[in-house]
Sequence to fold (117 residues):
Amino acid sequence: MADPLFGVHGKALQIRSQRLAMLASNIANAATPGYKARDIDFKKALADATGNSSVSANQAAMNNVGYRVPIETSLDGNTVELSTEQNQFAENALQYKSTLSFLEGRLNTIKQALRGE
Fold:
């Protein structure tokens, strides 16, 4: 996606997609002893992706991965708190859908302009 046409939304969509995958991995490993929940700092990743032209959105996301600190520790060393992960996943999915809807609207506007409508 070209930046002049879609702005930061193309990169935001890529970072949100990676974050969804990471949060899904956390949820899938909720019962795995010793698993450490990870997350992407979206704001920092987006700032890196948009502020530095040599850094791709995927690389910016991976550069801003951190471990989640649990509110309540687990005896088996697993740091996944299922309710937290589910809430983060749902919030990120909603934001992903909003960004995608914006991009779809932008594409529809461009199509209309090309057709002369």
About this structure: The chain has a mean pLDDT of 91. The chain is about 65% helix and 5% strand. The radius of gyration is 17 Å.
